Amino acid sequence: xxxxxxxxxxxxxxxxxxxxxxxxxxxxxxxxxxxxxxxxxxxxxxxxxxxxxxxxxxxxxxxxxxxxxxxxxxxxxxxxxxxxxxxxxxxxxxxxxxxxxxxxxxxxxxxxxxxxxxxxxxxxxxxxxxxxxxxxxxxxxxxxxxxxxxxxxxxxxxxxxxxxxxxxxxx
Length: 171
Known about the structure:
By secondary structure, the chain is an alpha+beta fold. The chain contains five helices and eight strands.
């Protein structure tokens, strides 16, 4: 399952956001199903299905728990993560403390990011995009140069073909 796309959404007064049907279908989310919401990076929130949240937990467990920064991340991440249910209309309710942390207002952007979703305040997303899009374009250009098929080599010789001895070919 690869999640892609950007979806303009609205957060209602009860802090509910609708997950688009096409995304719910990919995620196999149904009414009564659940997702996990947690703080993400750069001011966003991350949303995982239960299966992806478990896979994420396995990856965290595989990292070194003896490193202080890993322990701190695990502690902070799980202490703020919330399990939320999908209602009959395909909405989830964002916990108030997470909505405040991400500075979510009425207009939000939902992004598909490979194995999870990100939820951004629309204005913050637009500012992030404006700030990072040039860098993205430059990275894409460098990647295209890295993976480009080399152009055929153009002969350095011009004029009529000559025998290696320097004489003209005789027919």
